[in-house]
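Entry 14. Ran structure prediction on the chain below.
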Amino acid sequence: MRYDPEADVLTVVISEGGRLSHAEEVGDIVLHLDEKDRPLLMEILNASKVIPAMVRALARREATREYGATA
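Output, structure tokens:
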């Protein structure tokens, strides 16, 4: 995993095997896939905003599940 602060991109290597074939982008997430559609690499664009938002959403979800709290 590496973070480029200048580009504000977090890159996560999922698999080092395989050959990059194409990428699919959904919002701020770019998933790089091999020829069999297996994930090789994930990029999170605007990471300084996206990651904290993901953490908050997961924390609310977990609180709701464990304690019956509402967000």
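Residues 2-67 form one domain. Will compare against last week's run tomorrow.
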